[in-house]
From TrEMBL:
It comes from Proteus mirabilis. It comes from the Bacteria. PANTHER family: GLUCOSE-6-PHOSPHATE EXCHANGER SLC37A4 (PTHR43826:SF3). GO terms for molecular function: glucose 6-phosphate:phosphate antiporter activity. InterPro entries: MFS_trans_sf, OPA_Antiporter. Signal peptide: none annotated. This is MFS-family transporter. GO terms for cellular component: endomembrane system; plasma membrane. The keyword Transmembrane helix applies.
Amino acid sequence: MLIGLAATEYCHKNAAGTVTGYLGLYAYLGAAIAGWPLSQVMAHYGWTGMFVLLTSAAALMGLLLMPLLIADVSKREHLVGPLSFSDDDTFKRF
């Protein structure tokens, strides 16, 4: 759900429906394809292996999305300027 929100945030407003549609397509394909490998992990390693695999995958996705977050923050600082709480007009920027 949040990945769809993030994707529509980074695309043009006229392409938001297309981006959401493609994300839905890939999500359904991923869910359909993931059943067999996850069942094999479950059969060989049990619930512990399943949770380790899902936690590792979530951590990897977080690391892979980190450059996107850093680029967004640096872009916003470039447009607005660095946020300093010593300025009197800090809240006027928002």
